[in-house]
């Protein structure tokens, strides 16, 4: 199977087109603005569309919304003109089309933190409800009426990572971070939380994500620092380069490693690209796996249908966008009309059944409409483990295994 960016886009568009064939007359239109090409992450964009399409399928099989109306998607690549004018302008332009021309009632699909503020600004200008299922810590702290999230932010995951590290006596932290919005926010939050809450000492290096391929000098410096923990704060592509080069310079596998987002969940790719050096990797994740007994009937419907359609357990990116579609449909069903204003009222007023139980979007003191799932710290403890078999090592109330420290490296 080829994995070029054009193939990701073609599959995503074919998926949406097949779903839209069932939209019928007078459908409810939902916009998807997501990366389908580089320099974005088109893998994420394809997963977004998979989840959304299954959401429309669920709604269709359960009577539709507003008297039997079905879902129609309008799909835009937020990277469409990124090569010429940058990701921010590209994403804002595509969002403007969705909000102003395509008459969608809501939008979703933002993956990259660096495009999210621009897209949200446009959506707010046109009073368009938008679901943002990424880790941007500030986007719900800005208290916008039209922004909703059921995923976890950077600020949610850092305490899980560093409270665990502190609990086993880790004090010296080596940190290598990409200069993306995600990488910068993540590194800043790690250093602030670790120093203020736990008195940790950090050696931090930032690198340009787009044109850095050699990290050996920084990794050697981190090794010389003799850290208790190495945090790989890279993003797509550079994350695996750093794992390989950390092995080359002798930092790994003898030094414990955490990563800052859930790419190890794609276990087949993870083991193919890391080999034995992947053993011991830790990462924060929401409480979502096949063996969890807290999955609702809605979750089982989605998982069964996804496995039947695509042959693998659905990643959380697909899950969250499935959830968004079902929430929008439920809110529209109860709203006074199908206007954006009335949909916003319903989203704030109602409780929604989701994959993890009931969910409400409230105006909290620090964040509006941010309902994060329960988080845990996972660790691969054997080569070739699936993510469902990975160990939950923190918090203690959820742990399925003790933390596995690195083994003593063999000579040679």
From TrEMBL:
<feature type="domain" description="Leucine-binding protein">
    <location>
        <begin position="27"/>
        <end position="382"/>
    </location>
</feature>
<dbReference type="InterPro" id="IPR051010">
    <property type="entry name" value="BCAA_transport"/>
</dbReference>
<keyword id="KW-0732">Signal</keyword>
<dbReference type="Pfam" id="PF13458">
    <property type="entry name" value="Peripla_BP_6"/>
</dbReference>
<feature type="region of interest" description="Disordered">
    <location>
        <begin position="1"/>
        <end position="23"/>
    </location>
</feature>
<dbReference type="InterPro" id="IPR028082">
    <property type="entry name" value="Peripla_BP_I"/>
</dbReference>
<comment type="similarity">
    <text>Belongs to the leucine-binding protein family.</text>
</comment>
<dbReference type="InterPro" id="IPR028081">
    <property type="entry name" value="Leu-bd"/>
</dbReference>
<protein>
    <submittedName>
        <fullName>Branched-chain amino acid ABC transporter substrate-binding protein</fullName>
    </submittedName>
</protein>
